[in-house]
């Protein structure tokens, strides 16, 4: 079931910071950090599961099965990327019901044409506004609990301009979206215009190396945003750490100087303490 805490935080005006998680290791680490929410990144799942770009290749089944595992393995409310809803209106209904059954607290649906692309890469196209409005209405009708938040994302800023993105954001809010996500604004001034114009809570996407200025959480809150997601933080950090560790081994044949997690601490993170206790209890003497 959706966790009511996120809606309560939005209603109270509290800012929500959500790091991106993309596998169970990143989930278990982030879950212990005290964040208000975790963000399941479609880019990260496509990269970690398939080693492929975030270009509409991951299916609903691919996403739902991994999101379900992430929800079950964490105690933090989960915001989950659902791309375009994986098809037409019937697909959107199926996706919302499936994500809700998996325990997701907020589901993000975007207005890109299928197959979609990462929101900070070129070549994105969007569907007509009225088609996305219908998707939002179906998504709101499909949920069984009001605690499930519907996040409507528009990717129109890059190709159609900020004015169109703002018009779409307002329309999606009017259609029932709980949160509006205008992807890839290109300046702090544009970010402020978004929060000034949209009549519901707004989300800021913080991608290092992307099109949008990466700002601290307190600055995002000051600008009027309700949620700040950092979808790429985890996999970019892991990618660099792996290059450093593997590069040290390849270059020197020696990892004694590598910066590594303590093996026992990592084993405890993975749940081995339960295994050890089980063995102590049931070991045959």
From TrEMBL:
<protein>
    <submittedName>
        <fullName>2-methylisocitrate lyase-like PEP mutase family enzyme</fullName>
    </submittedName>
</protein>
<dbReference type="GO" id="GO:0016833">
    <property type="term" value="F:oxo-acid-lyase activity"/>
</dbReference>
<dbReference type="InterPro" id="IPR015813">
    <property type="entry name" value="Pyrv/PenolPyrv_kinase-like_dom"/>
</dbReference>
<dbReference type="InterPro" id="IPR039556">
    <property type="entry name" value="ICL/PEPM"/>
</dbReference>
<keyword id="KW-0456">Lyase</keyword>
<dbReference type="InterPro" id="IPR040442">
    <property type="entry name" value="Pyrv_kinase-like_dom_sf"/>
</dbReference>
<dbReference type="Pfam" id="PF13714">
    <property type="entry name" value="PEP_mutase"/>
</dbReference>
């Amino acid at each position: 079931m959706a966790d009511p805490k996120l809606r309560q935080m939005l209603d109270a005006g509290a800012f929500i910071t959500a790091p991106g998680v993309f596998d169970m290791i990143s989930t278990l680490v982030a879950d212990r950090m005290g964040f208000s929410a975790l963000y399941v990144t479609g880019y990260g799942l496509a990269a970690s599961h398939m080693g492929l770009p975030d270009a509409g290749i991951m299916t609903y089944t691919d996403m739902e099965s991994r999101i379900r595992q992430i929800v079950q393995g964490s105690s933090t409310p989960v915001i989950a990327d659902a791309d375009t809803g994986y098809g037409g209106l019937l697909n959107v209904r199926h996706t919302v019901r499936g994500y809700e059954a998996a325990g997701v607290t907020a589901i993000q649906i975007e207005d890109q044409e299928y197959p979609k692309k990462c929101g900070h890469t070129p070549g994105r196209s969007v569907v007509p506004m009225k088609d996305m409005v219908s998707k939002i209405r179906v998504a709101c009708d499909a949920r069984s609990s009001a605690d499930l938040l519907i996040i409507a994302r528009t990717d129109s800023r890059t190709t159609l301009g900020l004015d169109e993105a703002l018009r779409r954001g307002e329309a999606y809010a009017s259609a029932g979206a709980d949160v509006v996500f205008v992807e890839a604004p290109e300046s702090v001034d544009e970010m402020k215009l978004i929060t000034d114009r949209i009549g519901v809570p707004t989300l800021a996407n913080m991608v290092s190396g992307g099109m949008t200025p990466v700002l601290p959480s307190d600055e995002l809150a000051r600008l009027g945003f309700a949620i700040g997601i950092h979808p790429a933080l985890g996999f970019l950090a892991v990618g660099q750490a792996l290059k450093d560790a593997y590069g040290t081994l390849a270059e020197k044949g020696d990892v004694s100087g590598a910066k590594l997690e303590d093996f026992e601490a990592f084993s405890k993170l993975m749940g081995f303490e339960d295994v050890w206790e089980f063995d102590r209890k049931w070991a045959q003497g």
